[in-house]
Amino acid sequence: MHRPPTTQEFVLGELRRAIVSGQLAPGQPIRQDAVAQQLGVSRVPLREALKILEAEGQVVYRPHRGYSVAELSLEDLQEVYRMRELLESEAARIAAHRYTDTDLKLITEAHDAVEAAATSGDLGSMIAANRRFHFALLEPAGMPRLMRVVRTLWDATDAYRAVYYNADTNRERVRREHDAILHAATTHNAEDLVRLLNEHRQHAVAALRNTICPE
């Protein structure tokens, strides 16, 4: 049985969803009174949640101006994705040789959820299922400390992910690449899995570079 979330956890989850969906866009001010009223909470758990997001780099605080969603930065994106490449490659290389039937079932279910959400045009569900797919691929490595860092890196780029998934061409590319990644996982091909995941991240950075720094 899952314990009910605390008020802070509830608020944090709602803010994350708003950033991922683009409801809170990069650079947009976060009006604490309005958000607290909308969620039916006091400002105390809201401030606590905002401090967590600030530590992750998802929001920024400026004196006399308050909190706003972090602006998109190409340098920040490249640094985070380079760190992800190093850590996720290590986990994927180990995990590929350890996948059980149960692991592969979870990976396949997450893959299918991405497909279903993409077909129905449900952007929020597609982004959530994409996260489940990637973590299902990596967690069988049995490296909990490494995975905690990877989660923090993913959290720090939620705003980028929302922008990336907003384009039809990017969503179609994700679907094609996920098909190849799933095949590498089901055949326990570690080198292909690492290579395909690296290419998957590189394509995302390349697409976002054009969005963040248009010529």
TrEMBL record:
UniProt feature coiled coil, ranges: none
UniProt keywords, alphabetically: DNA-binding, Transcription, Transcription regulation
Annotated InterPro entries: GntR_C, TF_FadR/GntR_C, Tscrpt_reg_HTH_GntR, WH-like_DNA-bd_sf, WH_DNA-bd_sf
Domain of life: Bacteria
Domain HTH gntR-type: 5-72
CDD domains referenced in this protein's UniProt entry, alphabetically: WHTH_GntR
Gene Ontology MF term list: DNA binding; DNA-binding transcription factor activity
SMART domains from the UniProt entry: FCD, HTH_GNTR
The protein, known as: GntR family transcriptional regulator
